[in-house]
Design goal:
With about 425 residues, this protein is an alpha/beta fold. The protein has 19 helices and 15 strands.
Length: about 425
């Protein structure tokens, strides 16, 4: 059992997979304020649920009195992390990286407190130092500490080569630059810990060793386990796409629904990882079954949504779900798309409308949904794939309700 509040919380709630020196890190965290960082490359304009374990670790770091550092990869995004990928990432323009960086910053707004206080979160961009590095000095001062033989053994490289898939020299340099980030943050911000997912273990160890070799400074690395669903599927992905954290990419209602649909076997684990509910209360929920467990899922959804979108958005989402599922009403917070009255007067093919609403990813998926009896208009089952949606389907509230199964709904607003 760890003695520091920070590591004790991480261990009890299931965040820890590997640590370079658990005893040394525990002693450091127990004796004073610790600065730790996690890096996020700017590949999209929002983070998604797949990054939430790392975000929650930074949150717990701050809640236990330490300083979290959010490192945005304005520099490393120009190269692309090969970890866990079968092919190279598409290279982004400077403008796209800047826009993504601004969006990712918003992903942290409700999770961390930024400012100038001792334990306030710090936001940094590795472009500030990577963009100014000279190639020859980097090779002499940093590259000399890396063994090609060892670099070839890391999963991010080995798996690509084993599958005979190309790995560019550009990507091969990524691990060197990530290691250099740790050295730079150690110097600039007295940072002593890098955290990340289990796929980052090799990169993190490189940074620990580089900092020790060049500056003779003891730093640490910690990774989280790979988080998968009980079904074995990857966390943060659905048939409809990524579960984004920013409300302009995914509504608070859809975010709430994602957690409400958690598998029974995942409820307790996700409460520990993605909420701040006390462990004793979580244990009580884990013992429930059937209808009672459904109430636990609603609690999980509301707690997770509160952290990401705020208490009002969570309460509104829960109320919309209650009205939609328990009363059969069309809640005000359901996703809305628009259709012109001219198109509705002509009749919009139902298959096309379900695709436009994001309820089906293809015409084939829409046909299968209809054949299986899972497609409904205004709670009435659609009988034919050739059906159209028209002005006669507009309800008393001036909208049309589309449903795919029992839990996914979209409103169509005539314009």
């Amino acid at each position: 059992m760890f003695s520091s509040d920070f590591l004790r919380v991480l261990e009890e709630r299931g965040y820890i997979h590997q640590c370079t020196d658990g005893g040394g890190l525990d002693a450091l965290a127990a004796e004073g304020r610790l600065s730790a960082y996690i890096g996020f490359d700017c590949t999209a304009d929002s983070l998604h649920v797949g990054s939430l374990v790392q975000i929650m670790m930074l949150r717990w770091l701050q809640k236990t009195g330490h300083r979290p550092i959010v490192l945005l990869g304005g520099g490393t995004t120009k190269i692309g992390d090969p970890s866990g990928r079968d092919e190279s990432r598409a290279l982004l323009s400077e403008e796209a990286i800047a826009a993504n960086k601004a969006g990712i910053r918003r992903s942290f707004d409700r999770f961390l407190t930024f400012g100038d206080g001792a334990s306030d979160a710090l936001l940094v961009d590795n472009a500030d130092w990577l963009d100014t590095l000279g190639y020859i000095p980097l090779l002499r001062d940093v590259g000399a500490h890396f063994s090609i033989n060892r670099m070839l053994t890391f999963d991010s490289v080995r798996l690509r080569l084993d599958r005979e898939q190309p790995l560019s020299f550009l990507e091969f340099n990524y691990m060197i630059l990530q290691a250099y980030d740790f050295l730079e943050l150690s110097r600039r911000a007295d940072c002593r810990l890098q955290m990340g997912g289990s796929d980052q273990w090799g990169n993190i160890v490189n940074g620990v060793e580089l900092t020790r070799r060049i500056d003779a400074c003891q730093v640490y690395g910690l990774t989280t386990p790979l988080i998968t669903l009980a079904s074995g599927a990857k966390m943060g992905k659905t048939a409809q796409g990524a579960v984004w954290l920013n409300a302009d990419r995914l509504s608070a209602y859809d975010y709430w629904q994602y957690w409400r649909n958690t598998d029974d076997a995942d409820v307790g684990r996700f409460m520990r990882l993605f909420t701040e509910l006390p462990l004793g209360e979580i244990a009580r929920h884990e013992a429930l079954e059937g209808a009672e467990l459904n109430e636990s899922k609603k609690l999980l959804a509301s707690e997770a949504t509160t952290l990401c979108h705020g208490p009002k958005a969570a309460a509104d989402a829960a109320e919309t779900a209650r009205r939609t599922f328990e009363e059969g009403a069309a809640g005000a917070d359901l996703p809305v798309i628009e259709a012109t009255r001219g198109d509705l007067e002509a009749g919009i093919p139902v298959i096309m409308l379900f695709q436009a609403a994001g309820l089906c990813e293809s015409g084939g998926a829409a046909r299968r949904l209809i054949r299986g009896g899972g497609a409904r208009i205004n709670d009435t089952v659609i009988e034919s794939e050739l059906s159209t949606v028209g002005t006669g389907d507009i309800g008393a509230d001036g909208r049309i309700k589309l449903s795919a199964g029992k839990k996914r709904h979209v409103l169509v607003r005539p314009t």
